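Quick question, first post here. What does this chain look like in 3D?
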Amino acid sequence: MSDEGAAMTATPQQGPGASESPEAEEARGLTVLIVEDDPAHQLLIRRAMTKPGSPFSVVQLAETSDEAMDYATQMSFDVLLVDNRIPGHRGLDLVDLLRGKGVDSPFVLMTSAGSEDLAVQAYRKQVAEYVVKEPAFWNELPQILSRVVANDHATRQASELNERLRRTTEKLQQLNAELQLQNQELDTVKAQLAERDAEVAQLRAEIAELRG
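> Answer (accepted):
Ran it through. Tokens below.
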């Protein structure tokens, strides 16, 4: 790997599904792993990702699928941009391998030769975005990746909220079941007290009758 491919900074790998607040994310900047072996395309991507105003603070380049495996399992990235034709495993296969290792960041698959069949395969593997390296692609790349990260962040937040709602609902259901049981027990006690009151009233009546 040349110096051109070195990361600007490093972010330690967090556990799968780890998330942080939008404020913290914005403060540290976004991170991207780019898997691309073409030097010319590497340069174009790095220029696009590091131009003024880019939200990406870490742009890590990997030239092979093996390098990508090493980086992605040792560092945490907000998004992975993977070329489908790279030395080692092809991009789509790399997506499966990394997910098998617990990498749950969103993937963007790029290719120089787009096809309907490849697009279908990409979306079947739930790739976040499928892009073709057309002339406008390079300038639009930061916006594409930022949108993917934003969508992923929103999805994670929604998932966390749904999980909290599920746990809260289960707790409420448990409390409701306990309350119903307590009400049933209270009704039983009330019925027993009513029976005793009736017995006492009957005894009083019998005593009054004997005295009379």
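The helical segments are 22-28, 39-50, 65-74, 91-100, 116-124, 137-211.
The chain has one domain: 3-160.
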